[in-house]
């Protein structure tokens, strides 16, 4: 059965909590977390397709699984560096054995970083030790909270960026992307900007000058999801984050995500989460920091 999407509106769109940034506010400082700390019992935060307003580097040290980067699905294993610039789509499937660390960097130009998603497999021990050492130094700075910690973190982030860009350069030019991959990336860029608008899949396809059927076909081929499921996951992630991690009124959340009414948002929530929005928020109260 086709999942209903948000309906168009006639008119519609806190300091961050310690674990991860608020959906409403940009990251203000560099953070270094283990992957377990990043999700803190809420694996959907990484596993469901979403977009972030900060850059993120995921450094895996154990386990394997699959990642969806900017519309392209691929496998990952130990000693993989996955860099996702702010504004690019990400979904990271967490297996039981996956371990690693994450660096979150504000999107304010303080660190020179690649402008495209990167998936690098570091195969030599020296490169692996360098990346692990940089992250360990950053975590030590945060843990000890020494003077000039912000400057130290910025310096370490620059070293991480240099190590990352050296790895990219050592690989050399990549083969040209296939037509289907280029199309799915364009769709992902549209989703990142417009998934809150409530527009139909036909409207997205029209912007890409293709049919909805063709859009669904290439998304399934490259991402392993239909175009409609990609949009639905984006909306689900944002809706749940706003319900759980902000105090924004439910009717405002519905409007900001392009739903024609709070009642339709409630049906969407019950279908995908098994509970009404008010129940999701009530269950979250008492065991999560509020904004």
From TrEMBL:
This is AraC family transcriptional regulator, transcriptional activator of pobA. Transmembrane segments: none annotated. Residues 1-25 are annotated as: Disordered. It comes from the Bacteria. It comes from Shimia aestuarii. GO terms for molecular function: DNA-binding transcription factor activity; sequence-specific DNA binding. Keywords: DNA-binding, Transcription, Transcription regulation. InterPro entries: Homeodomain-like_sf (IPR009057), HTH_AraC (IPR018060). Residues 185-283 form the HTH araC/xylS-type domain.
């Amino acid at each position: 059965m086709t999942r209903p999407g948000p309906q168009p509106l006639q008119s519609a769109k806190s300091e961050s909590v310690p674990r991860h940034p608020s959906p409403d506010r940009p990251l203000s400082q560099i953070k270094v977390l283990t992957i377990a700390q990043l999700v803190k019992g809420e694996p959907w935060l990484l596993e469901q397709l979403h977009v972030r307003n900060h850059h993120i580097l995921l450094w895996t040290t154990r386990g394997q699984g699959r990642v969806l980067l900017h519309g392209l699905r691929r496998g990952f294993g130990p000693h993989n560096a996955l860099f996702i610039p702010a504004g690019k789509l990400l979904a990271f499937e967490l297996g039981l054995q996956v371990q690693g660390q994450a660096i979150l960097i504000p999107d304010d130009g303080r660190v020179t970083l690649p402008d495209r998603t990167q998936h690098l497999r570091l195969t030599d021990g020296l490169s692996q030790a360098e990346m692990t050492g940089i992250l360990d130094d950053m975590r030590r700075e945060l843990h000890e909270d020494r003077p000039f910690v912000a400057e130290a973190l910025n310096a370490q982030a620059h070293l991480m960026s240099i190590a990352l860009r050296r790895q990219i350069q050592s690989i050399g030019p990549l083969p040209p992307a296939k037509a289907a991959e280029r199309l799915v990336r364009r769709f992902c860029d549209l989703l990142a900007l417009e998934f809150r608008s409530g527009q139909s899949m036909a409207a997205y396809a029209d912007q890409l000058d293709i049919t909805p059927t063709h859009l669904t076909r290439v998304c399934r081929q490259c991402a392993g999801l239909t175009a409609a499921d990609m949009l639905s996951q984006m909306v689900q992630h944002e809706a749940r984050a706003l319900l759980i991690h902000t105090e924004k009124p439910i009717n405002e959340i519905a409007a900001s995500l392009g739903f024609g009414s709070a009642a339709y948002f409630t049906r969407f929530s019950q279908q995908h989460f098994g509970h009404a929005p008010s129940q999701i928020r009530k269950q979250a109260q008492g065991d999560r920091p509020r904004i």
